[in-house]
Amino acid sequence: MKPVRALLALGITAAVIGLAGCNKESGDAAGTAGSTAPGGETADQFVARVNDEMRAMYPEITSAQWIASTYINSDSQLISSKANERMLTQLNSWIEQAKKFEGQEMSPQTARAIQMLKLSTSMPAPRDPAKLSELTKIAASMEAMYGEGEYCTGEGDARECRQLGELEDVLRSNRDYDDQLDAWRGWHTIAQPMRKDYTRFVELVNEGAKEMGYADAGEMWRSGYDMTPAEIAAETDRLWGQVKPLYEQLHCYARTRLDAKYGEDKGEVAGRMLPAHLMGNMWQQDWGNLWDILAPYRNAGSLDITGALEGQWQQNFAAGMARHKGERNASDLAEIEHGADLATARQMTERAEDFYTSLGMPKLPATYWDKTQFIKPRDRNVVCHASAWPMDMADDVRTKMCIKPNEEDFTTIYHELGHVYYYLLYKDQPPIFQTGAHDGFHEAIGDTIVLSMTPEYLESIGLVDAQQQSKEALINAQMRMALAKVSFLPFGLMIDRWRWGVFDGSIAPGDYNKAWWDLKAKYQGVAPVEARGEEFFDPGAKYHVPGNTPYTRYFLSHVLQFQFYKALCDASGHEGPLYQCSFYGNKAAGEKFQAMLAKGASQPWQQTLKELTGGEGMDAGAVLEYFAPLQDWLKEQNEGQTCGWQASATVPAPAPAPAAEDAEDAADDAAASADAQG
Predict the structure, then answer these.
(1) 3-state helix/strand/coil string of 49-77
(2) Residues 6+ apart with CB under 8 A from 381
(3) Which of 89, 123, 324, 325 lies 20 to 30 Å from 198, alpha-carbon distance?
(4) What are the φ and ψ backbone dihedral angles of 235, each rounded to 5 degrees?
(5) Residue 12 — pLDDT band, cuts 50, 70, 90?
């Protein structure tokens, strides 16, 4: 799972994925937002007017956000900040106007629309114009700090700077212990300058939430689930209780393999926790990159998707070389490599599109292929974090990625197109209802497709070799999926546990970093190999924190996607174990899927879920059914091991960082840049 899928979570209808979709008064693109309610307007007329105004304003603000993410500079930050300021001013105006209908009789649809309007942003803004302006500037600045973040070492001609993608490559494929630690430390330096801004950001969104009648911003976030805030918090605890035993077995197995690779003194941290920098992922949320260490059986079917994609890139590069006759200088070679990058990224995206169209869904609009950011440009900084964009509440849909030819990015494309097809299929709903049944639904759509990417499907599209029919091949396939899905579950829970505490004050600013690692230890059983004091702000190294994207949606999606998958497998007529099902090409499954997507948020999610699955409640039973063979195998492998971990164990004292001065310089540079752009 690649949970960071979007921009600033400021939006109205697109707030479900954290994307900043904004609103502005119709007819005055440059003016100050804030429409006036006509006298004698009914509740139905009010909702109709808001929908009209929202649809008219939306493209301007999404365009500002798109530019801010794909052309990072002080000018685009200013445009984005001002656009968000207008949007939040307009939203506050609509919410204030809606108060006059409280207690009046109205249709259920109108009542639902008014309630959703109130909950339509994850960044509630204070009514005070000066504070609202301050909030949007901070949000834009933190977004830019993340997008421009880089880790620099050396001086003069020896100075080398690496951004997130390059540092992730180290964790992905370099098994040198110290190189991985250096890359992990380096990326976390980019968040240190955010700490002061984030503290103020929390104060401002809490003020906005209180003005709307909530205790704090966290309570407001938890109010968007057709349940009470207390009920959804309890529901996530219940779901985690269902899947925790499976995660604990996977954790135990991973620790044993890391001990064997690095030695027990390096393969685990005090309390039998997993070292944060050795999990193949900057945030330990997806362990798929550790396949070379964690693969159960070496010769039981090839699942080397990355190798196949790299081979595809080599073919595109060779074709580019063949087209370029004669002498080739360094610039020519760079251009040929860039062309191979783009061709491979488009081919990967076309393959993902093919899955959706095989279900009877429409082809992506031509504008998608013209306007999408497929790879990192050579001439500027961009936010590479994968995201999907509904630009106009109609057919202008895009994704924004910096695609590389590897399995992680390949499955991410399938995920992002899930968002895109949701946009396309609910576009006929009124704008207020153009969002997921709840935010976890939006995140689950593409991942439901990923579950259907069985070894047999991957073989059919030429990415893996013919698969053996054996227990060993089955366990390999299950492990491949578990390293993406099961490893993510506690991470999906802990980020908002941290933010709920930050918002309600139970986590004080002076304890931000301590609380972050306490929760990672409690839920994930991972820890840094050295103490991370309050001079750090490690939460900010994860996009969704400076980007203010709620994260409970991702945890819920990892339950829902298995429920969706099971329902669609049933609809396709699949017989046999759940894990063997691929509904690729099945129009009956596609028809049922599309019917759900077209509903958007027009009815309570419980009803939408029942229409697809037959049940009204979220349940992890399908997760356990899917992974039953792996769970039994893990128990056998872990027999005799002491599984579990001690979250209260003491982390070792800090070791001298080999590039401490360079890291400090990078942090100072980033802070200066933020000040200049603020």
Answers:
(1) HHHHHHHHHHHHHHHHHHHHHHCCCHHHH
(2) 72, 147, 148, 163
(3) 89
(4) -65, -40
(5) very low
Q: What are phi and psi of 61, to 5 degrees?
A: -75, -40
Cα–Cα distance list, 529 to 55, 231, 293, 309, 654 (Å) = 50, 37, 20, 34, 8
Element (H, E) at 418: helix 407-425
Enzyme catalytic residues: 385-386, 415-416, 419, 443, 544, 554
The C-alpha atoms of residue 65 and residue 147 are separated, in whole angstroms, by 13
The answer to whether 165 and 341 have CB atoms below 8 angstroms apart is no
Angle at the Cα of 291 (from 286 to 294), degrees rounded to 5? 100
**For the CA atoms of 240, 246, 248, 253, what is the dihedral angle to 10 degrees?**
-150
Q: Are 53 and 35 in contact (CB under 8 A)?
A: yes
Could you tell me the sign of the dihedral formed by the alpha carbons of 655, 658, 663, 665, in that order?
A: positive
> Is the model's pLDDT at 87 over the cut of 80?
yes
204-231 confidence digits (pLDDT tens): 999 999 999 999 999 999 999 999 999 9
Query: Tell me, what amino acid is at 385?
Result: H
CA contacts within 13 A on the Cβ side of 272 = 14
Pair 146, 546: CB distance under 8 Å: yes
pLDDT bracket for residue 574 (50, 70, 90): very high
Rounded (5°) CA angle 5-408-177: 110
Q: Is 456 a residue whose pLDDT tops 70?
A: yes
**261, 150 in Cβ contact below 8 A?**
no
pLDDT tens profile 348-360: 999 999 999 999 9
Tokens for 190, please give them.
């980019």
Q: Residue 185 and residue 663: Cα distance in Å, rounded?
A: 9
Residue 34 binned pLDDT confidence (cut-offs 50, 70, 90): low
**8 A C-beta contact, residue 613 and residue 564:** yes
Provide mean pLDDT across the span 176-189. Answer: 97
Residue-averaged pLDDT of the chain: 89
Q: Are 623 and 244 in contact (CB under 8 A)?
A: no
pTM: predicted TM-score of the whole model, two decimal places? 0.85
Which residues are bridge partners to 399 per DSSP? Answer: 388
Terminal CA-CA length for the chain: 33
Interstrand relation of 397-400 and 387-390 (parallel, antiparallel or unpaired): antiparallel
pLDDT value of residue 120 = 84
Confidence of residue 37 (pLDDT cuts 50, 70, 90): low
Determine the distance from the C-alpha atom of residue 228 to the mean position of all C-alpha atoms in its chain, rounded to a whole number.
Answer: 25
